[in-house]
Amino acid sequence: MTHPTALPPEGGNISFCTGSGALDLAVEAVTGLPTVLVGEKDPAASRLLAARMPHARNLGDITAVDFAALAADIARPAALTAGFPCQDISNAGPRGGIAGDRSGLWKTIAHAVRHLRPRLVFLENVAAIRSRGLDVVAADLAAIGYDARWMCLRASDPEVGACHRRDRWFAVAYPAAEDPHLTARQERGTPAPGQTQGRRARAHAGGRSGLLTAPDGRLRLLPTPAAADGTGGPGTSPKRRGGMNLRTAVTLLPTPAARDWKSGASNLIGTNSRPLNEVVVNLLPTPTASRYGRNRSASQGASSRPSIEYLVRDLLPTPKASDGPHGGPNQRDSAGNYYLPGQAVRLDGQWMATNGTDYGPAIHRWEAVLGRPAPEPTEPGTKGNRRLSPAFVEWMMGADPGWVTSTNLGLSRSDQLKILGNGVVIHQAAHAYRALLATLTAEAASPAPTQLTLDIA
Question: Which residue stretches belong to region Disordered (predicted)?
Answer without folding.
Answer: 180-243, 288-338
